[in-house]
Amino acid sequence: MLTETAIENGSSEHLFARTARQKRSVGSHALTASIELMGSPMLFPRNAEIYGEKEPADYLYKVVSGIVRTYRVLIDGRRQIGAFYLPGDLFGLEIGKEHTCSAEAVRDSKVLVIKRSSVVSHAAWDNEVGRQLWELAGRELERAQNHILLLVKTAPERVACFLLEMAERIQSSGELELPMSRQDIADYLGLTIETVSRMLARLEDASAIDVPSSKRIVLRNRTILKRMSA
Amino acid sequence: MLTETAIENGSSEHLFARTARQKRSVGSHALTASIELMGSPMLFPRNAEIYGEKEPADYLYKVVSGIVRTYRVLIDGRRQIGAFYLPGDLFGLEIGKEHTCSAEAVRDSKVLVIKRSSVVSHAAWDNEVGRQLWELAGRELERAQNHILLLVKTAPERVACFLLEMAERIQSSGELELPMSRQDIADYLGLTIETVSRMLARLEDASAIDVPSSKRIVLRNRTILKRMSA
DNA sequence: CGACCATTTGATATGGATCAAGCGATGTGG
DNA sequence: CCACATCGCTTGATCCATATCAAATGGTCG
Predict the structure, then answer these.
(1) Pair A31, A132: CB distance under 8 Å
(2) What is the DSSP letter of A96?
(3) % chain B with pLDDT above 90
(4) Is residue B25 predicted with pLDDT exceeding 60?
(5) Which residue is nearest to nucleotide D7 (CA to C1')?
(6) Contact between A138 and B4 using a beta-carbon 8 Å cutoff
(7) CB atoms A82 and B148 under 8 Å
(8) How far apart, in whole angstroms, are the C-alpha atoms of residue A148 and residue A134?
(9) Are B83 and B130 contacting, i.e. CB atoms less than 8 angstroms apart?
(10) Taking all residues of chain B, what is their mean pLDDT, rounded to a whole number?
(11) What average pLDDT is seen over chain A?
C-alpha cells in the first residue's frame, strides 16, 4: 500500500514517507516553494509586532529580509527570547490553535505570510509538504533543546556559543555583523547587557575575537571560542 | 480531494487532516493503542540506560510504570535533565536518525517498546496515527519552551514551578510523592541539590508546603506557590 | 553642535555555588 | 537484633559569578 522508501534528498529516513500514488512535488523544497508562490509579502518596521502570544496561529511565516525574534515575558517583565529567525527561516508554526510566543521584527523586515489552512490542505495532497512541516517542527525542537543546554552554561560559555551559532548562520566573510542589540542578545542568553559586554571584552582579551565596532565581530580564533563554548 | 474538517475529538483544528478515503481508526488514541498492541514490554532497573545520545533512534517508547529521565551532559560532566516521563507518556521520538538525548530509568520501570518503522508505516495508512505523532512532537516542543522559560527564573521560582508541574502530572490526593532524587531535581532545574533543599525549606517556612519526609511533599497553599512560581 | 540612545566600564551587592559538617534512613555483616 | 557503613538529604559558613547601580563614552540623527 505504501513504499517506505522516502529517501530522495540525502536527508535520510523520514517519518512521513511518500506514497506512490501521491503527487510528487517538483523540488526538494516543496513547502518553501509553495510559500514563495502563495505567500503575501509584508513589511514590518523595526520592533513591530508580527503576532502576539495567545493570538490565533492562522499563518505561517518566512523571513525574506531582516530578522525576527520570538519571545515570552514573565509577569514582572523579564523577557526571554526563544529564537532569532534569519532570511530563509520559517517561523510561526504551532501545534495548537494559538501562538505560544510573540514575534517581532528586530529590524525592518520583509516577511512572506501564508494561511495555515492552505499549507495544511496542501500537505494533505502532497506528502512532501507534510514531511517538511514535520522536519520544521523537528528543527524547532532541536533548537529548543540546545537552548536549554545553553542556559545552564556559564556566562562566557553562553556568549562564545552565541557567536559561533550566529557565525554559522549568518555566513559572513570573516567578519560577523550582529543584527540585534545587546539587550536582545542578553535576553536570548539569560544574561544582562553588562555581562554580555564584559564577556565580549574578555573574549577580545583572550584574542578569540576582535570587536572593531559594537555590532561587528571578527572571529579571530574559533578554536579558542569552541574551547570556551562548553 | 480532501475534507478539511478534522475536528472530531474536541482537540480543535489539526495540521494533519483526515481524508475521507483513509481508514478511520477506532479510538481517539490510535497511536497509544497500537503501541499497546504491538509494543514489547521491557523492564529497566533503576538507573539503567534505555538509550544513549547519538544512538540510532529506531524505537518509540511508552512508560507503563516507573519514571524515565532524558538528559544531556556537557564535556565537563554537568548534566541537564530535559524531561521526566511518567506512566502513560511516550518518549524517544526523534526527527533525525539519532537520539539527541540519553534516556535512563529513574527507578525500576516497565516500558513498552515499538519499532519506529512500524509506527511510520502505520502512520502512512492511518492518518490519525500521523496526527498523533505530530501532536506528540508538538507537546515536546511546548515542554521544551516552558523549560527554557523556567531556566531564567530565580531558584525559589524554579522549585515552586517544579512542584506545581509535578503535582499536576502525578495527580495525587493531597500529598505529592516525588519519584526522583534531589540530584535529579537539581539537574532538571539547573540548580544544586543544596539550593533545592534550601528552597524547599524556605517554601515550608512560608507555609506553602509541608515536607514530612524528603520525598513527600504536601502542597499546603497553592496560591502562595503560584505566586512564587513566576 | 547638541540631544538621545546604545554600549562600555567601574564599583558594589547578592543569589546561588561551593566547601564542610551533621543527620537520618537504609542496608549489611556480625 | 544490633553495630556500623553507606547514601541521600539538610544545614551552616564562605566564596564567587553575575546582577545591580552608576558614570563615562561613543555613535546617530536632528
Answers:
(1) yes
(2) S
(3) 72
(4) no
(5) B181
(6) no
(7) yes
(8) 21
(9) no
(10) 87
(11) 88
CB-based contact B157:B170 (threshold 8 Å):
no
Q: What local confidence, expressed as pLDDT, does residue B130 receive? A: 85
Phi, psi angles (nearest 5°) of residue B105: -75, 130
A46 has a chain B CB within 8 A of its CB: no
Whole-number Cα distances in Å, A188 to A12, A76, A77, B135:
32, 17, 14, 27
Q: Where is average pLDDT lowest: A33-37, A51-55, B52-56?
A: A33-37
- Give the pLDDT score at A22: 46
Torsion (CA) A10, A142, A84, A88 in degrees, nearest 10: 20
Distance between CA A154 and CA A140 in Å, rounded? 23
Q: Average the pLDDT over A76-91 and give the result.
A: 96
Query: Domains in chain A, ordered, with CATH?
Result: 4-144 (2.60.120.10), 155-229 (1.10.10.10)
Task: Give the residue among B54, B48, B139, B124 at the shortest CA–CA distance from B91.
Answer: B139
The reply to whether A227 touches chain B by the CB within 8 Å rule is: no
Longest CA–CA separation in chain A, Å: 63
Give the nucleotide nearest to B192 (CA→C1').
Answer: C17
